[in-house]
Amino acid sequence: MSTARPVRVRAPGKINVSFRVGPLRPDGYHSVASVYLAVSLYEEVLATPRADGAVTVGVRSGSELAFDLDSIPLDESNLAVRAALLLRELADRPSGVHLEITKRVPVAGGMGGGSADAAAALVACSALWDTGFSREELVRISASLGADVPFALHGGVAVGLGVGDELTPALARKDLNWVLVPASFGLSTPKVYAVADTLRERAGIVVPEPGGVDPAVLQAMHTGDVAALAKVVSNDLQAAAIEQAPELADILDLGVAEGALAGLVSGSGPTVAFLTSSRRDAEELAQRLSDVAGVVALPVHGPVHGARIMA
Ligand SMILES: C[C@](O)(CO)[C@H](O)COP(=O)(O)OP(=O)(O)OC[C@H]1O[C@@H](n2ccc(N)nc2=O)[C@H](O)[C@@H]1O
Ligand SMILES: Nc1ncnc2c1ncn2[C@@H]1O[C@H](COP(=O)(O)OP(=O)(O)OP(=O)(O)O)[C@@H](O)[C@H]1O
């Protein structure tokens, strides 16, 4: 359907419930095996047509988190702008658009917030410009914007191979309840990968190709066995994130001491995610972490849908 009216899209942040990192490839990326879970913390992009043909962006906070909005570029390096420019070129449209981003996913937090913005911008502009691209085509297009962008479009639960962009849907029988503890600072994704390489080199570890994901993780999600899942969640980037920000180790210990079934750093960090048994346990843990440590702690659940137009 063609529309000249503004289009609002929301796209989720993610947790890597399991994340294996293989060797560094010649292109500067690592081959990975990821179990992605989309969680109920959403970015929103409102796309409004611009008559002058320009592609512009604005960012505002939609959260109680103290976002460093100044660290987000407002030029052509903004991921949402890159998405719109790429789509415009592929669809051969002369159209302009203003993208207003409402941020709720921690910036540089390891939860794919910028990727969610890119996915939301693709879906919004595709509707605005009536490109006729299918969802599958948008997913394919999105891979050139970043390794996490296809999953922000896809949503739900998925296995990500290659650099994380080769997705296969997976099943979660039950809604999983987590508590997120965002940090007041960000970590650079390439830096965390580089530190991971250095740590492995120093330990004399020759890193194998990740192959696939840990089948025990898929099995636990498939059967909805949260206790079993808690035993197998893991992230190969966690040690490198802790090396960069040692306080993350204390937060991980605290969450488990306060009753989380398990804790792990999300993606390249520094956001920490704690698994709990129920929505109620997540709310109680978030309250305790806030009381005991004075940290912001957000209960979330997943799987949730990928980038989608809002009514
Ligand atoms: C850490 C994760 O968030 C886990 O899902 C992703 O692997 C990162 O995904 P992303 O932020 O979308 O990454 P991109 O924007 O494509 O890449 C940023 C940088 O991260 C590093 N990178 C990213 C993905 C990957 N499989 N191997 C890498 O080494 C590379 O240095 C790359 O230049
Ligand atoms: N729309 C955007 N939103 C946030 N950051 C953006 C955006 N466009 C470009 N960036 C740049 O990308 C950097 C990382 O952003 P993002 O919030 O996606 O990190 P992240 O969640 O750690 O990413 P990932 O988990 O995918 O590695 C920011 O510091 C910023 O400089």
From TrEMBL:
Positions annotated as active site in the UniProt record: K14, D148
Family annotation (InterPro entries): GHMP_kinase_C_dom, GHMP_kinase_C_sf, GHMP_kinase_N_dom, IspE, Ribosomal_Su5_D2-typ_SF, Ribsml_uS5_D2-typ_fold_subgr
Keyword Protein biosynthesis recorded: no
Gene3D superfamilies, sorted: 3.30.230.10, GHMP kinase, C-terminal domain
Enzyme class: transferase
EC numbers: 2.7.1.148
Protein name: 4-diphosphocytidyl-2-C-methyl-D-erythritol kinase
Species of the source: Arthrobacter mobilis
